[in-house]
Amino acid sequence: MLFESQAHGEALTRLHLMLQNGSLGVLTGEVGAGKSTLIRHLISSLDPPRFQPVYLVQAGMRPKDFYGELLRHLGEETPYFLEKARLLFHKTFLQRSQSDSARKLIHSDTRGILRLINNLCTNALFTARQKGTEVIESELITRIIHDAARQRGLAT
Predict the structure, then answer these.
(1) Which of 18, 46, 134, 150 has the largest CB neighbor count within 10 A?
(2) 21 vs 14, 17, 138, CA distance in Å?
(3) Chain centroid offset of residue 115 CA
(4) Distance CA 77, CA 73 (A)
(5) What is the pTM of this model?
């Protein structure tokens, strides 16, 4: 349970804003100020398919170790060299922030109607499997939406 002081409320607001903007965040504060409690509260409120939180508590990490831990939490192999680790993290982060653009397209096209969502997502899964990809990006969803509209005679 979280006792939300004014400082905790402000920190939670800033963390939620960070999530809405799709950015990374760092929470700092005095020992015993409630940082861990606040982060655990935030993590428990997140939608697991939409967010993959990474909670690092080690102080004084070298950049190589920092990127290595991020990649490990994201299920990626950690390259030996810092620059390769940094590039892999950015690539992974961008790819994963795409599966959200795709969700918005799906919701926009289907207007939240479950049968339409199911049909669109099934087509996306089949196409992704056929191409051997594990991440469904917005470009794939756009193409499936366009193809379906063309089949219905709604697009040229």
Answers:
(1) 18
(2) 11, 6, 18
(3) 25
(4) 10
(5) 0.55
